[in-house]
Amino acid sequence: MSKKKINRIFLLGDSWIEGQGTYSEITEDFVLIEPNIPFGDDKGFGKDEKTISGWRKKNSWNLFFKEKYGLDDSQIINYGSQGKDNYSSFELFNKRFTSFIDTDLILFGFTSKYRDNSRAMNFGFETLINNNNPILSQLSFEKQAIFGEENGRINKEHLSGLSKIEREISEEYIRDHLISVFDETVHENIAQSNYLFYEKWCKAHGINILFFDLFESYVDKKFVNELYEVDKTKYITYNDKPYWQKLVDYELENYRPDAKYSIWECGHTFPCKFEYAKGGKSKKLVLKNGYKDSEIWHPNQHGYKVMFDDITINHVDTQYKLTPQLI
Fold it and tell me: From CA 264, how far away is CA 32, in angstroms rounded?
């Protein structure tokens, strides 16, 4: 079976698609730093290298596509953006839908479903915080930021700008909401409905697209009934590990104590710590508070390259043939 020819790549997702964590130099004490340029607004395309967003794209995902396939700037459209939720990516896809052609390939990275806001039927944490209880607007809308690292306690750092009574009400409100209102299946059902629509819509219109999970599974197999069918040639991480976990596994297998850098933005700091034995010849993962996923940080360009290689070698290259722009 011949592979379909692809001339343009579209990237959709959050900071992991933008390339946050990519560094420009390593200091003497192995600190990884970015160039000192403003964040700015690159209009979602990553063309403006004078902004940190554009620089990150140029030196991570966009660079990898150029190096491996010889694609030029006009063939790589990177919509990755720091803090983006899934509905923002859906909206970008919808706006561009009529302009997609048969030689386009879309790579859609799902961010956390808990980041989604009021468009998720008012069940997102952003809506809970900003609309249902306005005094909580200074809190992060992501589930991880709401909890501290000590046995699920409220993260006091995010309440520091509130008065004493506001802090007390906020803590009680979040606690009571999670105990008496929050229902995991609500988020799961919404995600299942969203994915089912986009898979069928793309197939019906001949859209070339690959979905994959960056953090937790957008569609979690354990919440899916036996009649729910997913095409794993489209949703490549379904019922598999998300990419943050794949990176942790990669690091566990490949990291050495004398390495100058890891695959994470903080150099030698990991989402999960390693413990060495036998003079550093063996290592194991040390869990924080009993959970592997107690922290999720950005990769650096080496981590993004691990993701890129897995996606392209195991999925893109098996179905498609990417070709440079014809002059």
Answer: 9
Domain-wise residue ranges, the chain:
4-115+200-322, 118-184
* CA distance linking residue 307 with residue 327, whole number of Å: 30
d(CA 165, CA 276): 46
The closest alpha carbon to 4, from 319, 326, 219, belongs to 319
Q: What are 112-159's pLDDT values in tens digits?
A: 888 885 444 444 444 444 444 444 433 333 433 443 333 334 444 544
What digits encode the pLDDT tens for the residues 207-246? 999 999 998 899 999 999 999 999 999 999 999 999 998 9
What's the average model confidence in pLDDT over 38-54?
66
Angle of helix 301-311 relative to helix 243-254, nearest 10 degrees?
110
Q: How are beta strands 25-26 and 32-33 bridged, if at all?
A: antiparallel
Phi-psi region of 208 (alpha: psi -120 to 50; beta: other; left: phi over 0): beta
- CA-based radius of gyration for the chain: 21
